[in-house]
Design a protein that fits this description.
mainly beta, Methylamine Dehydrogenase, Chain H, five-stranded antiparallel beta sheet, four-stranded antiparallel beta sheet, 43% strand, globular
């Protein structure tokens, strides 16, 4: 395979998919609310689910999404409009509450446990912190300009540290105790292009989707001097990582190869358990609360639901093909709805009947 290690994500997607940047050029449309009860289900392996789109909010540059703890608001990382906050109290009629522009392409978003701050991976502008206390008037608090292009971000449970997947700069750990003046604690330069990051339950390890370098496991017990524990080289290009509740399995989206399940019970020696090859480019992943299903954002192939109860033989349960390119997905707390970002299509799309 062509070694593309030193080519940016943007350039790579031009080469492999003909896309501009990390996804297709967004439609030039105004933000509007759109309601539809269109169903789009598939029946495989003898299992039936009725999926339906119940509502959408057209933020055309949507790339990442997370929900408030009470499930009333969606926070969308939008390439064009920065952070967009959407009222989802009525999922059939989502409406915009507020937004704030962010310099650079906004790729990912996570929020503090108290729901007062949003942390954004803003590409060449690094980490941006936004006050969301008033969702109708979100305001920038501070930022830290990383050396690379930030693609993914997660924060520690105590809200003191942000972990940024920073493209060719690897993993960057940032002190966010003073959100107006975040500072770098440490970093680990991975061999590939860091796209996504998640933490172990005890927050001593970071699991990084490192593009052509696969899954990289980093010891972060000393945030000033993170060190590599091991890696597992997947077949294609690794993006996002989700962990089982017991930290024994990592679910890695692997581009054209779909979902790869890796045994991490011994983090020093990860091994492959199984995989499911989706039809499109698997990018984002989240798991059901009981850990039996994986929900994949599969780019132009839409939302894919995979039964992962047998790690060695995952099977497709269902799919929903949106109008544009799906890059991220998260679930409602009760697991009945999926919120997907449909870049260049319908923006934030709410899909019912997934449980």
């Amino acid at each position: 395979m062509l070694n593309l290690k030193h080519i940016s994500l943007a350039a790579l997607f031009v080469l492999t998919t003909g896309m501009t940047g990390c996804n297709s050029t967004p439609n030039n449309t105004s933000n509007t609310s759109n309601t539809s009860n269109t169903s789009n289900n598939s029946i495989e392996e003898g299992k039936i689910q009725i999926l339906s789109k119940i509502g959408s909010y057209n933020t055309a540059g949507a790339f990442g999404v997370t929900l408030s703890s009470d499930g009333t608001k969606a926070y969308v990382a939008d390439w064009n409009d920065g952070l967009v906050i959407v009222d989802i109290n009525d999922p059939a009629h989502p409406t915009k509450l507020g937004s704030t522009p962010i310099a650079g392409k906004t790729n990912d978003v996570t929020i503090s446990s108290d729901g007062t701050k949003a942390y954004l991976a803003a590409s060449k502008n690094g980490l941006v912190i936004v006050d969301i206390t008033d969702p109708t008037h979100p305001t920038k608090l501070g930022s830290y300009d990383t050396a690379g292009k930030s693609w993914g971000v997660t924060i520690s449970s105590d809200g003191t540290k942000a972990y940024v997947a920073d493209d060719r700069n690897g993993l960057v750990i940032i002190n966010i105790t003073d959100p107006a003046h975040p500072t770098k604690l440490g970093s680990y330069d991975t061999a590939g292009l860091s796209c996504g990051v998640t933490l172990s339950s005890d927050e001593t390890k970071a699991y990084v989707g490192d593009y052509d370098n696969g899954l990289v496991i980093i010891d972060i017990s000393d945030p000033y001097n993170p060190t590599k524990l091991s890696s597992y080289h997947t077949t294609d290009f690794s993006f996002a990582v989700a962990l089982s509740s017991d930290d024994t399995k990592a679910y890695v989206t692997d581009g054209f190869e779909g979902l790869v399940i890796v045994d991490i019970s011994d983090p020093a020696h990860p091994t492959k358990l199984g995989s499911y090859d989706t039809a499109g480019i698997a990018y984002g992943v989240t798991l059901s609360s009981d850990g039996t299903k994986a929900y994949l954002s599969d780019n132009e192939n839409g939302l894919i639901i995979v039964d992962i109860s047998d790690s060695a033989h995952p099977i497709k349960l269902n799919s929903y093909d949106t109008a544009g390119d799906v890059w991220d997905v998260t679930l409602s707390s009760d697991g009945t709805k999926a919120y997907v970002v449909d870049h260049g299509g319908d923006g934030l799309v709410i899909i019912d009947g997934i449980k």
